[in-house]
Amino acid sequence: MSLINGTTATAEDPDSKSKPITPWELRTEFSHHDPTIARINNGSFGCCPASIMAAQQRYQLLFLRQPDYFYFHTLKPSILRTRLLIQTLINADNVDEVSIVDNATTAAAIVLQHTTWSFFSSLFQAGDAVLILHYAYGAVKKSVQAYISRAGGHVIEVHLPFPVKSSSEIVSEFRKALQMGKANGRKIRLAVIDHITSMPSVIIPVKELVRMCRDEGVDRIFIDGAHAIGNVEIDVKDIGADFYTSNLHKWMFCPPAVAFLYCKMCDDLSDLHHPVVSHEYGNGLAIESSWTGTRDYSPQLVLPEVMEFLSRFDGGIEGIMRRNHETVVEMAQMLVEAWGTELGAPPEMCSSMAMVGMPVCLGVTSGSDALKLRKHLRECFKVEVPIYYRALVEGEIDPITGYARISHQVYNVVEDYYRLRDAVNKLVKDGFTCALLYK
Questions:
Q1: Is the pLDDT of residue 167 over 70?
Q2: Residues 410 and 293 in one domain
Q3: Is 30 among the domain residues?
């Protein structure tokens, strides 16, 4: 039995696994969270219940107890179990299409490395393009620069509107970028499309964009669904992309760090390789990824225990996703009414995260202001929430330029959002502006 803060991790009791989780047990599962902080930023790092941490520790101890036995008899079968579960969760045809990697950034490196070799081998020509959303995650954008730009590829950024009123706006801008990318006979070799953008956070109509890419002759399509699994439904066959990745430690309750990379079965993708070369090189991406050298593989092994944890909630993971979405929209609308602002996207384009406009008088005029305001809310009001700066558009008068990205996960309570509401209201009442943080 594992003790966390003097309480027993409930999921280790065999009799408790099939029973609906109680409010007390739910609090116990997350009793390791700092109780002084209103933690409404699950999106950045996710969360891990105590029972899953206990399962992780058991795998760690098994390795330390007898590393050779663990390596030869436990590790690969356990990773295979995880891959089989993911195959079912994402509706993949074959388990060989599913590889386990550290995170979505590693998955992006695998796909971009493969694309780069096509430039170096002259299969692709200098100036051929890779298309990426302007709101793509920063590490992925830098990976595109590091791999594609250095290989002679041309990078096209799709500039999406924000705030966004409907998915049709995104579709329209994406179509324009595709046409621009094909100008002068240029070929678009790869499209990198977020399923849920990080900052600002918006659900992207990936299925429609994938279909558009196919119609326009884009060679390969990679969906970066870093925030997706455990947050929105994923059906890789229905989406139709060549590659799809998502982190299991953000919304799927796994400890950091673990993600999957789906690669649609295809002969010319057989040369995909993990960027860390080990003695498994050449045995297929899934096997290469299962051993990249001595490290802690325990986050990759606990998905069976996570599925048991999820089964104790009404409706399982689907029920959690639905309630998280409904609650985060409700809390976002509460904040909008309290601050007299607006949502950054309509409710149907929010996942378990929502963008909430902040009062204009706070004076968020740069990304640096947003970071300083976030720090101020953390240190002075014990609220952890990311702040996004939206650059001014020419001709705007007193626009909202600061947006809070709020998350909702099973451990959150309504008081977390009231604390954010009251903190911002106090800042407004006191005449606070971000400019004061520089004095």
A1: yes
A2: no
A3: no
